[in-house]
Amino acid sequence: MADYSPTAPTIPNLRRRYGALDTEWTSWRDVYGQLSDFVLPFAGRFEETDRNLGNRRYGSIYDSTATRALNVLGAGLMSGMSSPARPWFRLGTADPDLASFQPVKLWLNDVQRRMLDLFQRTNVYQFLHSAYLELGLYGTAATFLADDFDSVLYGYPLTCGEYRISANYRGEVDTLARKFQKTVAQMVREFGLANCSQAVKSLHAAGNYDAWVTIYHLIEPRADRDTRKGDAANMPFASWYWEEGAESDKSYLRESGFKTFPAICPRWQLFGSDIYGNSPGMVALGDIKQLQHEQLRKAEAIDFQTKPPLQVPAALKNRDVQMLPGGVTYYDGAGTQSSIRTMFDVNLNLSYLQADIQDVRQRINACFFVDLFLMLQGQDQTQMTATEVAERHEEKLLMLGPTLERLHDEALNPLVERAFARMLSLGLLPPPPQEMQGQELNVEFISMLAQAQRAVGVNSTDRFVMGLGTIAQMKPEALDKVDADQYVDLYADQLGVDPRIIVGNEKVALIRQQRAQQQQAAAMAAATQQMAATAKDLGSIDTAQPNGLSDLMNLTSGYTLPQSYQ
Predict the structure, then answer these.
(1) Which helix H or strand E contains 33, and what residues bound it?
(2) Measured CA distances, 73 to 68, 124, 455, 470, 504 (Å)
(3) Inter-CA distances, 500 with 100, 108, 335, 484, 488, Å
(4) Does residue 264 form part of some domain?
(5) Using one digit for the tens of pLDDT, what is the confidence trace for 123-151?
(6) Which element (helix H / strand E) includes 182?
(7) Three-state DSSP class for 58?
(8) Which of these, 190, 388, 169, 158, lies nearest to 263 by C-alpha position?
(9) Last residue within a domain, chosen from 216, 243, 272
């Protein structure tokens, strides 16, 4: 066994800690289970043995509207917030003057491109999409980010029920606990045979590699550590793995630590001091259950009309009756009472039920923001201008504003910061300019949704410039109020333009200086040419004949007066 810190918690204390976290989560168990049953049955693991359960089918779902709406929400957030096809964040500095310095801007842009390339080569976009689905359904998502030798960073997405969380006094998630199972072979490969319990060693020796073993994992702030030491046992966040039947108080599978919290745990919406978030799925749960009920009743009503209950003469009991179209059944009987007929007249009007079903579907789609992400699908685009489309899009995006800010703070920002720190520690980033020494970096999001929210400022700038152009036609001096350089920088910033296509202030000053010198040289050349032409014209005048030039020469030479004075 490794040499553990004497201040490390004992396994009984860790078990009690997990128990307290589990008690906090238990009150959500029922609503989580209903959401899984009626929307996404394969999501959610509410027991550690819930794995590879093929019998968890869509048996409770008679109408898939909610499932499809959740998929639209997940895909919309994925493409709108963190699309693999375009940059969705950029780095900046707290000092705006430094951020506008061209070498710094180019370095930040280079770092951004390298980080986006890293995200493409790892499973970042896979676990982000899973997190968006979990957020839309359960209101809380969790991904464990582990350092990886091959891919630098690797995310392990956790589904609802697999984890428990807690938050600090600021409401920030800083504790993650898990209870899960691994096979004997997986445990030996990950933790080493020497660190496993005697029971696991016996199973391994017997060749029972596929037996399942329950494991606990707890990550939380380390309360007692030596800040002068930088080893894993003294890092700000502690991590412990142990088996369910650990043999001693400190028989950990692994004890380690992290400099920062190694998990991403965003919440959709919080109220008060809640730890777990609320979701669109919770808002729509009543409508979802109503829709399933109405679809079942509609199917029953259709069955009543297509295959109604019958009254059959007793003479046909235990005899073959041909109920298919064209079938003939012979029996002895007389009178109307001896005929086969329906038990009661079935003539149900389904129009009211169908109208209500359509209304419920619209409410479910609205809860999952389908009308936002598929806005243009239901519009007659031939009757809409581009400006109207943009304005409608921005208006609907206001509904997601608070959620986007929370997801930026609790999901994407921690991901970018952890990836940057990991790449920096491995020397995967270019050396920064001297001006960046000791400077803090800021993360700014430029995804489609983030840009759409900021488009209000872009539209304001456009309207200002258009109005100014109208005024300038009557009062050209109005253009003196516009700083063209600041306008270009601000507009490019609002649109998230790649800084490589914007010329830096220093280079612009040099270009303008060169242009002024060229203009000055051209003016001097033109003046010289004009003087030469004048001299040439004067040289061609015949001074032997009386004229203005001969008079001027005679006057300045002092020989004779001009003819007009003689």
Answers:
(1) helix 29-38
(2) 9, 18, 22, 43, 40
(3) 12, 11, 95, 19, 14
(4) yes
(5) 999 999 999 999 999 999 999 999 888 88
(6) strand 173-183
(7) coil
(8) 158
(9) 272
Quick check: is 265 in a domain?
yes
Show the domain range for 197. Answer: 1-30+160-272
User: Quick one: pLDDT at residue 3?
Assistant: 44
> Looking at the domain assignment, is residue 380 inside a domain?
no
Mean pLDDT of successive 10-residue stretches along the chain, which has 566 residues = 51 91 94 94 83 70 94 91 89 81 87 94 94 96 91 92 93 94 93 91 94 94 82 88 81 90 94 92 96 92 82 76 71 62 71 93 94 65 56 65 89 94 91 86 79 60 73 77 72 65 72 81 81 67 58 57 51
Predicted TM-score (pTM) above 0.85 = no
**Residue where the block lists tokens 């108080």:** 249
Q: Which tens digit of pLDDT belongs to each residue from 496-548?
A: 666 667 776 777 778 778 888 888 888 888 878 877 777 666 566 555 566 55
Place of tokens 């001297």: 434
Q: How far is it, in rounded angstroms, from Cα 99 to Cα 492?
A: 14
Residue 242, classed as helix, strand or coil, is strand
Q: How many CB atoms sit inside 10 A of residue 550's CB? A: 17
Collapsed DSSP state (helix, strand, coil) of residue 146: strand
Asked if the structure places residue 187 within a domain, the reply is: yes
Q: Which of 253, 272, 291 is the last residue of a domain?
A: 272
How many domains does the structure of the chain reveal?
2
* Backbone angles phi and psi of 7, in degrees to 5: -95, 0
Neighbours of 486 (CB within 10 A): 9
Rounded Cα distance, 157 and 163, in Å:
10
Amino acid letter, residue 11? I
Rounded to 5°, the CA angle 228-233-239 comes to 135
